[in-house]
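Please decode residue identities from the backbone states below.
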């Protein structure tokens, strides 16, 4: 499995979409690739050879020679189909004029990240969604408590004065799961007039992969958009599971709650779902287990098909 993205000019999205779709399908790959004039983003799963053929194709596109690619192993196929789609943005912020190709923050390697966020006066912001932050974050990072990445600009504008105060030249360090949201959020802050903006290169996943646990400033686990649900240092599978009722991660403590029913509900969504909905989730879970025992794929929704929002 490979998650990849690259911000670069893509002039004929439809032509590239057709070629990518044809290649992915001929290689038996499944997953989602999003194309926009600003670049490519997505996750694909299949054989190593097939994945490398697609990555090689993308690298041959003008301006795409060095996409950010992260590989992960999967015992089972995490997706049900292959989708290659053209969108307005490859990660949706909904802010016209924000262009990561004309100005983003300073990239900071995982090896230099600790020093930056430990520096007095550095404002550290987690740009992910609220349910992701609840699973884990860097010590002392600000949680915007946003439900969607679209909410980040409004949050920052509302909190700007409180965050920055009278600081003449504030230093802001931001991070996200794999780096793509920070490309947009740092470009947004620069458009808002903030010059000293930094972001973690390769995201949390690169940090957890390369920084030893004994040197780490990360607390908890990192939510991921695949069947692992969450990972820890060394990208080892974590302790969270996915609630199939609300698609949110469920901690080990919440798994002990009487409101948690595997495949049906968790403490976060139990009160917001009707008995009929929970019965539907239970039937879907039963069908998925039945399909698994028969060795066939179930056509129901897959958590791995969710994209970073």
């Amino acid at each position: 499995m490979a998650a990849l993205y690259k911000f670069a000019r893509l002039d004929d999205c439809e032509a590239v979409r057709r070629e990518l779709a044809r290649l992915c399908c001929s290689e038996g790959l499944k997953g989602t690739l999003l194309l926009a004039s600003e670049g490519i983003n997505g996750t694909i799963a299949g054989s190593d050879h097939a994945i490398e053929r697609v990555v090689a194709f993308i690298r041959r596109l003008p301006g795409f020679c060095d996409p950010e690619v992260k590989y992960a192993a999967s015992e089972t196929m995490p997706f049900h189909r292959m989708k290659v789609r053209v969108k307005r943005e490859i990660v949706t912020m909904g802010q016209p004029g924000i262009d990561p190709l004309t100005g983003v923050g300073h990239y900071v390697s995982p090896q230099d990240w600790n020093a930056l966020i430990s520096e007095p006066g550095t404002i550290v912001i987690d740009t992910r969604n609220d349910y992701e932050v609840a699973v884990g974050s860097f010590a002392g990072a600000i949680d915007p408590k946003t439900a969607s990445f679209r909410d980040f600009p409004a949050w920052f504008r509302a909190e700007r004065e409180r965050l920055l105060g009278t600081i003449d030249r504030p230093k802001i360090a931001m991070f996200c799961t794999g780096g793509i949201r920070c490309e947009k959020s740092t470009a947004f802050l620069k458009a808002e007039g903030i010059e000293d903006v930094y972001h973690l290169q390769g995201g949390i996943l690169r940090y957890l992969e390369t920084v030893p646990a004994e040197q780490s400033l990360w607390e908890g686990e990192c939510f991921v958009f695949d069947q692992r649900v969450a990972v820890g240092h060394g990208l080892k599978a974590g302790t969270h599971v996915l609630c199939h009722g609300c698609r949110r991660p469920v901690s080990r403590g919440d798994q002990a709650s009487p409101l948690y029913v595997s495949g049906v509900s968790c403490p976060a969504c139990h009160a917001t779902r009707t008995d009929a909905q929970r019965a539907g989730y239970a039937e879907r879970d039963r069908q998925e287990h039945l399909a698994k025992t028969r060795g066939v794929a179930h056509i129901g929704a897959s958590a791995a098909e969710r994209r970073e929002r």
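Observation: Residues 301-309 have pLDDT under 50 and may be disordered.
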